[in-house]
UniProtKB/TrEMBL annotation:
Species in which this protein is naturally found: Chitinophaga qingshengii
Pfam families (alphabetical): OTCace, OTCace_N
Membrane spanning stretches: none
Source taxonomy: Bacteria, Pseudomonadati, Bacteroidota, Chitinophagia, Chitinophagales
Domain Aspartate/ornithine carbamoyltransferase Asp/Orn-binding: 177-320
Name of the protein in question: Ornithine carbamoyltransferase
PANTHER family: ORNITHINE CARBAMOYLTRANSFERASE, MITOCHONDRIAL, ORNITHINE TRANSCARBAMYLASE, MITOCHONDRIAL
Gene3D superfamilies: Aspartate/ornithine carbamoyltransferase
Boundaries of every Aspartate/ornithine carbamoyltransferase carbamoyl-P binding domain copy: 7-151
Length: 335
C-alpha cells in the first residue's frame, strides 16, 4: 500500500512491506543517499501536544525544518481546547491552515481516551494526522527502534531475540511502545518475548492481532512473568514501563511497588544474555528505577543512537506521506 496522503496512527494499518520500506528509507536518508531537503518545501505542520515530550517533539521539529517545511508547536492548554472547543471543530479548522497535524495525547487514568480523541481529530481533518504517542500506540518510536536494531545486527536483525521488558518506575506510562513493537514484530516475522509482572498484561486486542499475523509471518512472540528466564539468550533487552490497564491508578501504584526489586534491569540480566546483547530504552530513564546505571551508562547501551534515529525515522515517515518515492524506482529494501 502507499502511505501517500495517509494518516500514520497505528502500525496495524501497515503491511510488512511498508515497514521494511520505512526502515530502509530511514537508513538511506541517514546515510545521505536520498536528498529530502526540499521534500516539505512550503508545508506547515502543527504539533498538537498535551503531554510533555523531548525526543518526539525535537525530532519532528528538526525533521520538518531540515526537509524545508515549518513545524509550529501547539500546546493544547494554550488553544481553545482548554475552553472545551470540540476536537471536531479543531480538526476542521486546523485543516484550513496546516498540511499535517502531529498529535501527542493520552490520559492513563482512562485507557482508550487518547486514541478516541486522536481518531476524532483524524476523522474531522482533511489533512494527514500523525500519532506522536497516544495510550495505545507509538508507531514513530518503533520505526526508529527497528532502524537501530538493523544498524547493530544487519539484515538478520529480525531473527535476533528481543526481550521487551516492563520496568519499574513510579510514573504510569502509555502502552504505546510495547503495542507498536508487538505489531511490528508480528508483521516482520521477528523473535520477541514480552516480560511483565502479573497484572500488567498488554491489551488483548493487540495480542489477538499479533497472534494472527505471527501465524502468517512465522514470527515467534511469547509472553512471560519471569524476567530472568526471558533474558536467557537475549540479543536485545528493551525496557519500558506501562500502566496496568485493568487496575485503578492506586492499585497499579501498589502493585508496581510490590514488584519493583524484581523488575529493574541490571548486569545480572545481561550475564544471561548473549555476549553481544544490547540495551535499548526509548527514554526518559531514571537510573536506579527501571534500569541500573551500570547498564544505562555501560558498553551495551545504545540509547543515544536509538534517540538519534528518531530524527531519521520521522523524516522517512514524513517523506512517505508527503513525497513518496516514485513507483518506477527499485524497492528500497534492496540495499
Amino acid at each position: 500500500m502507499s502511505l501517500k496522503g495517509q494518516d500514520f496512527i497505528d502500525l496495524r494499518h501497515l503491511t510488512a512491506s511498508d515497514l521494511d520500506n520505512l526502515i530502509a528509507l530511514a537508513a538511506k536518508i541517514k546515510a545521505g543517499d536520498i536528498d529530502v531537503s526540499d521534500a516539505l518545501s512550503g508545508k506547515t505542520f502543527g504539533l498538537l501536544f498535551s503531554i510533555a515530550s523531548t525526543r518526539t517533539r525535537l525530532s519532528f521539529q528538526v525533521a520538518v525544518r531540515q526537509m524545508g517545511g515549518h513545524a509550529e508547536y501547539l500546546n493544547a492548554d494554550q488553544l481553545q481546547l482548554v475552553n472545551h472547543e470540540s476536537l471536531t471543530d479543531t480538526g476542521q479548522v486546523m485543516s484550513r491552515f496546516l498540511d499535517g497535524i502531529i498529535v501527542r495525547m493520552y490520559n492513563m487514568k482512562n485507557y482508550g481516551e487518547g486514541r478516541s480523541a486522536l481518531q476524532t481529530l483524524a476523522d474531522n481533518a482533511s489533512i494527514p494526522v500523525l500519532n506522536a504517542l497516544d495510550d495505545k500506540d507509538h508507531p514513530c518510536q518503533v520505526i526508529a527502534d527497528l532502524l537501530t536494531m538493523r544498524e547493530k545486527f544487519g539484515p538478520g536483525f529480525k531473527k535476533k531475540k528481543l526481550v521487551f521488558s516492563w520496568g519499574y518506575t513510579e510514573r504510569q506510562k502509555s502502552l504505546g511502545v510495547p503495542h507498536s513493537m508487538m505489531v511490528a514484530g508480528s508483521l516482520l516475522g521477528m523473535n520477541m518475548v514480552f516480560a511483565y509482572p502479573e497484572g500488567f498484561d498488554l491489551d488483548e486486542e493487540y495480542i489477538r492481532f499479533t497472534q494472527k499475523m505471527a501465524a502468517e509471518s512465522k514470527a515467534s512472540i511469547s509472553f512471560t512473568n519471569d524476567l530472568m528466564e526471558a533474558t536467557e539468550g537475549a540479543d536485545v533487552i528493551y525496557v519500558k514501563s506501562w500502566k496496568a490497564i485493568n487496575m485503578s491508578v492506586e492499585d497499579d501504584l501498589a502493585a508496581r511497588r510490590r514488584v519493583q526489586d524484581d523488575w529493574r534491569i541490571s548486569n545480572k540480566h545481561f550475564e544471561r544474555a548473549n555476549k553481544d546483547a544490547i540495551y535499548m530504552d526509548c527514554l526518559p530513564v531514571i537510573r536506579g528505577e527501571q534500569t541500573l546505571a551500570e547498564v544505562v551508562d555501560g558498553p551495551r547501551s545504545v540509547i543515544y543512537d536509538e534517540a538519534e534515529n528518531r530524527l531519521h525515522a520521522q523524516k522517512a515517515i514524513l517523506h512517505s506521506i508527503y513525497a513518496p518515492v516514485p513507483v518506477h524506482q527499485p524497492s528500497l529494501t534492496n540495499y
